[in-house]
Design brief:
The chain is an alpha/beta fold. The protein contains four helices and eleven strands. The chain folds into two domains: 178 residues, no CATH class; 137 residues, no CATH class. 27% of the residues lie in helices and 22% in strands. The relative contact order is 0.13.
């Protein structure tokens, strides 16, 4: 073969080889692009499924809170709470935390189960009626976390402008079957007040902790010997009908309480404590109603020998922020609190 023809053949071969190689590379790039696009689509689908699964876990936790509230026992949801469940961002004893888990939630047509988890957290003195929920969902490599807060009926809103009560001057038009705190503290229930007191005690709050305990429900008839509260940190001290079954406990001389003290004597005026109640900076509420009961209480002032000084922050432990017009007996989401978290 002449040299010129041989050179032209080599050039043609190189050109054909280059074109074939370029076509192969283009095909490979196209296949890879399709694969990446499909992979991205699959990942987006998995991420969406994981987020929806996490939202379903939020709904499960909210349903449990609502069920406990409708059964009149809001504290039942928090009984399994443990300090070890609280993250570093929500440290005890101020925070109460409960972890809920559903480790084997299966979808139709999917052999691998979802693992769902919710961490419920609330601050026991600052906002016991607001629950922060953090939900997570995992299925293999798919993982999502979402957060939402809600209002729970742990305590009821206080009546606006309720005046401080003296234990000898409760309104005679009310029924003495009502709890003693009704006029001063609104539509609170015994279950709600007892539960909040129990939760604070279970979490380790006391008169000297940080934050300090703010609610005390007392069933014992023994004289009260502990000073509570500070001028800027009021407490609620309730002596229940069980404590007042005979004679309500008295605050011994030298004891000082900042806040609201309730003697729930029911219709028994004679059960109210006699003698010095120590010193109370705030308000005293004792239900002594009806003409005969009021007259009986008036013959001997239970505050004689002690001192009761009105205070503007006496209702502070239950003076919580509720949106205006909210139905506080139902679990309701906090507007604007929903968010997606980075796993």
């Amino acid at each position: 073969m002449p040299p010129r023809q041989a050179q032209r053949g080599v050039s043609t071969l190189l050109a054909v080889t280059a074109l074939v190689t370029l076509a192969a590379v283009s095909a490979a790039v196209g296949v890879r692009a399709l694969w990446l696009e499909r992979l991205g689509s699959d990942n987006r689908a998995l991420a969406l499924q994981a987020r929806l699964a996490a939202e379903s876990a939020l709904a499960r936790a909210a349903a449990q809170l609502q069920q406990a509230a409708r059964q009149g026992d809001p504290g039942r949801f928090w009984t399994p709470a443990r300090a070890t469940d609280c993250p570093a961002s929500h440290p005890p004893p101020g925070w109460e935390c409960r972890r809920l888990e559903w480790p084997d939630v299966r979808e139709a047509g999917n052999a691998e189960p979802w693992q769902l988890q919710v961490l419920a957290m609330r601050h026991l003195t600052r906002s016991p009626h607001v629950v922060e929920l953090i939900a997570s969902a995992r299925q293999g490599p798919a993982l999502a976390q979402v957060g939402h807060s809600l209002y729970q009926p742990a305590v009821a809103p206080l009546p606006a402008g309720a005046a401080a009560l003296d234990i000898t001057s409760a309104p005679a038009s009310a029924s003495c079957e009502q709890p003693a705190w009704t006029t001063a503290l609104g539509a609170q229930t015994e279950a709600a007040l007892r539960q909040l007191s129990d939760s604070q005690a279970r979490a380790g709050l006391n008169a000297h902790s940080s934050p300090a305990r703010s609610v005390y429900w007392v069933d014992s008839a023994q004289p009260w010997t502990q000073s509570l509260g500070q001028p800027d940190q009021a407490v609620l001290l309730v002596f229940s009908r069980q404590a007042c079954a005979g004679v309500c406990p008295r605050l011994v001389a030298g004891v000082q309480v900042h806040g609201t003290v309730v003697f729930d004597a029911g219709c028994n005026a004679a059960a109210l404590p006699r003698g010095a109640p120590g010193q109370i900076e705030g308000q005293v509420s004792g239900l002594v109603l009806g003409p005969s009961a009021s007259a009986a209480a008036g013959t001997e002032d239970p505050s004689a020998g002690g001192r009761i000084t009105p205070s503007g922050n006496a209702r502070q432990p239950l003076d919580l922020r509720w949106p205006e017009g909210m139905e506080a007996r139902e679990v309701q989401w906090v507007a604007g609190s929903w968010h997606v978290r980075t796993p």
